[in-house]
Automatic annotation (TrEMBL):
It comes from Thiocystis violascens (strain ATCC 17096 / DSM 198 / 6111). The chain holds residues 256 to 580 of 580 of the full protein. GO terms for molecular function: kinase activity; metal ion binding; phosphoenolpyruvate-protein phosphotransferase activity. One of its GO terms (biological process) is phosphoenolpyruvate-dependent sugar phosphotransferase system. This is Phosphoenolpyruvate-protein phosphotransferase. The active site is at 256 (proton donor).
Length: 325
């Protein structure tokens, strides 16, 4: 089976009915680039930059960020990379985060990710400047974690304009059209996806947090992980809303939570209209095998039918129905 999967690496990722699907990689460390490329990733849909802040008591400066992004871009040979700005908090806490004064008793609902970055511009600016400068070196997209409202988005966009002027004055290059996107991983953001989509170049659904926040289950608490259910009707509706917001506003929507790399959900997500999947590199070929064999039109028709019955049937039946050959 491994050999059969390896043979898929060079095949274009098209469904049986000829729809192109982007299968992208989630990277956490620079060395993940090799696995991503070996498994034929079309790009990086999520580069988590938290490791740059871990196990140290100072903060990375702009040059350190830039050197790291430049190395990644060089290693990727022209495929695009989506760099996510710092998402520190809860399970990803580090010295820098602690110094920023978070002693919240419920950190998942506290000053995390974009919230922390907007409160601490000195933490945020060097990374934003470095991502802008990296965009002169290859195809880069910038992605914001844990967006909750349009005010956050507008604040970041204004900051980016300001930093572009600064770089102009310093004679430093960047891609003036650097795409900026938001992760949709807070239920409020999914419900307001159209408003966010109006301002963004792309959206990416973070199901790990979307499920945590929608179902009110701490993703780190084993006592409640039996409730973790990507097929809960509430989750499916939020995913569908987000994909539809992207379609209505004509911007791409990807998914970079674990759900995108889980073969049980590939046909369902194709049926919901998802066309970009980002996952841990080890899952790329398993998902590709399913995509190559799928008829997206048929899946969309059947998913729409099943959605009409969402409140009357057990969601696991919906999956079974879609996953039958
Ligand atoms: C997510 O929440 O689904 C996600 C991709 O981000 P992280 O797992 O890094 O929070
Ligand atoms: Mg997340």
């Amino acid at each position: 089976r491994q050999r059969r999967l390896r043979e898929l690496v060079s095949r274009p990722t098209l469904t049986r009915n000829g729809v192109a699907i982007d299968l992208l990689a989630n990277l956490e460390l620079p060395e993940d680039v090799r696995t991503a490329k070996a498994n034929g990733a079309a790009g990086v849909g999520l580069y988590r930059t938290e490791f740059l802040y871990m196990n140290r008591d100072d903060l990375p400066d702009e040059e350190e960020h830039l050197a790291n992004y430049a190395e990644m871009i060089a290693g990727l040979d022209g495929i695009p990379i989506t760099i996510r700005t710092l998402d520190l908090g809860v399970e990803k806490g580090c010295e820098a985060f602690v110094r920023c004064g978070s002693n919240a008793c419920n950190p998942a609902l506290g000053l995390r990710a974009i919230r922390l970055c907007l409160k601490e511009p000195e933490l945020f600016r060097p990374q934003l400047r470095a991502i802008l400068r990296a965009s002169a070196l290859g195809p880069v997209r910038l992605m914001l974690p844990l967006v909750t409202n349009v005010h956050e988005v507008d604040t970041v966009l204004a900051l980016i304009v300001q930093l572009k002027h600064q770089l102009d004055r310093e004679g430093l290059r960047y891609d003036p059209a650097l795409p900026v996107g938001a992760m949709i991983e807070v239920p409020a953001a999914a419900l307001a996806a159209r408003a966010i989509a109006h301002r963004m170049d792309f959206l990416s659904i973070g199901t790990n947090d979307l499920i945590q926040y929608t179902l009110a289950i701490d993703r780190l608490d084993d006592a409640v992980n039996y409730l973790f259910d990507p097929t809960h009707p509430a989750i499916l509706r939020l995913i569908r809303m987000t994909i539809e917001a992207g379609r209505a506003l004509n911007i791409p929507v990807s998914m970079c939570g674990e759900m995108a790399g889980d073969p049980r959900f590939t046909r369902l997500l194709l049926g919901l209209g998802l066309r970009e999947f980002s996952m841990q590199p080890g899952a790329l070929l398993d998902i590709k095998e399913i995509v190559l064999d799928a008829d997206s039109r048929e899946l969309q028709r059947r998913t729409a039918q099943l959605f009409d019955l969402l409140d009357e049937t057990d969601p696991s039946h919906l999956l079974e129905a879609l996953n039958q050959a």
